[in-house]
Amino acid sequence: MTVRVAINGFGRIGRNIVRAIYESGRKDIDVVAVNDLGPVETNAHLMRYDSVHGRFPKSVSVDGDTIHIEGGDSFKVLAERDPSKLPWKELGVDIALECTGIFTAKEKAVAHIEAGAKRVIVSAPASGADFTVVYGVNHDKLTKDHIVISNASCTTNCLAPVAKVLNDAFGIEKGFMTTIHAYTGDQPTLDTMHKDLYRARAAAVSMIPTSTGAAKAVGLVLPELQGKLDGVAIRVPTPNVSVVDFKFVPKNKVTVEEVNAALVAAADGSLNGILAYTDEPLVSIDLNHNAASSTFALDQTKVVEGDLVRVMSWYDNEWGFSNRMADTAAAVGKLL
Length: 336
Hints:
By secondary structure, the chain is an alpha/beta fold. The protein has helices spanning 12-24, 40-48, 106-109, 111-114, 154-170, 214-221, 256-268, 319-333, and strands at 3-8, 29-35, 49-50, 54-55, 60-63, 66-69, 73-78, 95-98, 119-122, 131-132, 148-150, 172-182, 208-211, 229-236, 242-250, 275-278, 294-297, 302-304, 308-315. It has 2 domains: 3-129, 3-Layer(aba) Sandwich (Rossmann fold); 154-317, Dihydrodipicolinate Reductase, domain 2, CATH 3.30.360. A 9-stranded mixed β-sheet has the order 5-6-7-2-1-8-9-11-10. Strands 12, 13, 14, 15, 16, 17, 18 and 19 form an 8-stranded mixed β-sheet that branches. Helix 5 (154-170) crosses helix 6 (214-221). The longest helix has 17 residues, at 154-170. It is globular. The model has no long low-confidence stretch (mean pLDDT 98).
């Protein structure tokens, strides 16, 4: 079955979802429409040329309100502020991918259902969501009763596979995560007014401490870890690729070799394509455009006296997450 999707918000994630679908060659998802308030030609131009990920792999053209992609595919570009007024019923939309960052709460996201979509997947944590999914970790628990679904955050998608493997293998008594995170579009290029004074500062000139709910959100995905994890973020002056530094106390003493072996086995097995690993001395740029949710660095594992463990895992916070949005859409489509 090919699931028909529409994307609300054609920014970093919205555009990369389209790109992920075409670069992977998948035929189980058909993008029928995009809703974005910017001009159609501007949306097409930003699709063709990307400062982080390079040129779009196919030629892109515009005809009226439609973007055409080399090979015969096309989708309409709408400009409607109220998602409840979008023509999802008329266009036969199965799933709306809510990527604006505005309509994240369930009571706002259901506007897409009112407009005729059968399901909504929010590209962010979503308060009140029927289900929070991290593909590869708990997507097998999706049901037909889940209407508004959160795809969590890019950081939760990085941490959750690692936490699942470590908890299954050794048990996690408690843990703390620091994500060293690339700056994103909601940060200013120069100092400006913001209710969070950390977020008021220029993105590209400082390391900026800030909050994140990514670690706590793992408890939504893995209930057995509810209340056991917390974390913080430090935004750094790079445009893409982030890294999770995770420290935890295991139930029993472990070694570096045991920790690495458990993660490698999962990456080669049940979490293949979601969790990856490297034994090379990589830096962040080396992981740009990497589709895995989480790439574990074998040489960064540290164990102190057997009961304090530190692991590190990279993630392309745009590309990996966008690929998981597509994976989740396909999984939800099978339930319709």
